[in-house]
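Lab notebook, bench 4. Still working through the backlog of constructs that have no structural model yet. Next entry is a single chain of 752 residues. Request: give me the structure tokens for it.
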Amino acid sequence: MLALGACPKPPPPENPDKETKPEVEIEEMPPLNELLARGMRQHQARELEAARKTVQNILVMHPRHLEARVLLAMVAEAARDAKGAAEAWAEVERILVYRGKLAPFELQPTLYAAARYYVEADRMDRARLFLDELWRRFSTGEWSVKAQLMLAETEVARRRWTLVVKACSVLNRLRPSHSAVAKCRRLTLAAQRMLEVGPRPGPSAHSWVWEHPLPQGNPLNDIWVAPDGSLFAVGVAGTILHRGAKQRKLVRLESGTRWTLNAVWGSAPNNVYSVGAAGVVVAYDGKSWRVVRRPNPTEPDLFGVFTARPGHMVAVGDRGAVVRIENGRAIAERPASGALRSVWGSSHGRLYAVGDGGLLLQFADGRWRSIKSDSYEDLWSVWGASASEVFVVGNRKTVVRIDGEGAKEQVVGRGHFRDAWGFDGKSVWAVGTRGEVIHFNGRSWSNEPTGCLVDLLGVAGRSARELWAVGDGGTVLRRRGQRWSPIAGGLQQELVAVSLGPAAGEGQALGKRGVLLHRQRGRWRHRGSLPLWGNYHDMWSNGRQLLAVGERGLMVRRSGKVWQRVKTDTPEDLLAVWGHDGGATAVGTRGTIVRLVGDRVVVDRPVTGLDLRAVWGDNSAVFAVGNRGVMLRFDGERWTELATNVLADLHGVWGLSPRSVFAVGEGGLILQWKDGRFKRHRTPISQTLLDVWGSSADAMFAVTRQGAIIRYDGKAWQVERSPAACLTAVAGSPATGVLAVGCHGTVVRWNP
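Model written out:
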């Protein structure tokens, strides 16, 4: 047994004044904000491994810290770690969307960085989450402006022009005075021009040919007649018409461009120039047209052209632009700030140019100078009998006469004048809006009836005995003796729908104001109008029956030869209709759905408050599409909404069967509903698609209001060669083929 005294004594205590050191040294972490700043500096200095460790230290303490997660994603991007970046951004999205809690530190650059990542990855559905949050919280912040400008510039690089316009419109609406708006305006102008002209057709593209009106129906902006009687007329979508000195018919010539041509002039039949949108210049050498100045969407439009001899040309345009070609050398000038609309000269060294706000310029001795005038109206055209006898016409019945003493203004006629032409000081004509033509006989002006109500935009001739005028809808008038008569031209209203009958060569087309065109044996004729006045939006026909719908619930039905109005009991506009055996379905604004079941009208309860723009179906199912990507399906008992996961407006729908349905819309969007799932097709176009039709899985067609046509061959969509400037609907039949209709009575046919 051990004694207590046998226990060992404890060691003596250490010096209490001496500090005890722990065995493991603990490093004190700097404050959170300092760590974040350090990580940002390391990222900017490309010290990526150090930056990653710094961020991980933050996430150990704060796993859901938003900016740390964004910084981790940015570091992973810089290190080309695609998987790590995707995981980091997914975590950022979860924090924003599901938790709804945001760290307060530098939230604006955080949201911007996240939006930029998804925009560059072309994940606009995800980018929209961050952009919306940025605009909601910081609508007047600099990062919000930077985000919209970044979005617009990215879409320019991708050539998605509709999205460029949309991005810049948001910026202009919320920050109209910001300096970035000026750059966005330039991007918007370029985008709108690219939307107007559309993409180039591919090498394997098929052509479409005009059926109505003939020879074509695009608006014609100007005309020039050579001394030998040769005629050249130019217009929208690069249209050029030609009539040789010994020819009787107008024929279309290939211009080499689809940009709008605004003016044409020549010194001889083999020296003709035409100018137009985006600064394009094309020239004719007697054999073919070629582009001598390529269009640039950021360049001013050219509105007027004059040439006095080969090797010389002068053109004027928007923002005071002047382009001169002297012996192959191009000279660009800007003698004024306002738009110049027309130019004419007594020689290549003596020129007159006119423009907006009463602008009058004279070019002599190698320089431009202004001419005093008491006119303040926009001046559209100038023509002279000599350097001392010049006539100018413009808006609000304005006629200005320039002589050796100055410029004197007169007010004559009824409307706005667009062009002038003459042969001497006693034989001058001017044409303008609503078919107006006035004639000057040396003493006074008088009106000449034309029987035409469309705007006339150009006039020219080789003698007072034979004069020509051109205008909207491909209108061509000829004056012989004292009488004007129509040579070519379309309708004064656009066609909104087309339907082909079961027999070969048969079809019908409906105009917006109710006019009906009938096709028999390949030729179109005007056969009257619908019995009820109003604005119509769509038509369906199977040959035996016809249904047309329009504004404020308007619905008209024809069975055989009997017309009848159908009371729909709705004040909403009906935008589309589709019929089938035993009934029909019409859809419209604010989600309106009207069904015909036999002779009974059923107004279904709206499933959505959004506008429904198109409908298609058969006896087993009906599909309707509309604004913000909405798509509805009717199974015979009730309507259900399908999740398209897009926010763009849908304008057209067509199905090969209820299991395979195509929908098209804003920005060239193409969706296919197949076996219960949606597939988004790669689109070759950024214009809004208005309608779609197909006969099989490898023969689908869609059209745009700018006249573009795209075709699906079962593998990919490609751009077709369309001669039209405006299209609204497309349809076909096995017996007749495929037709597309549009503005001014346009009908074009697929010519594979």
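Notes after review: The chain is about 20% helix and 40% strand. Confidence is low (pLDDT under 50) at residues 1-10, 16-28, 99-105. Flag for follow-up if needed.
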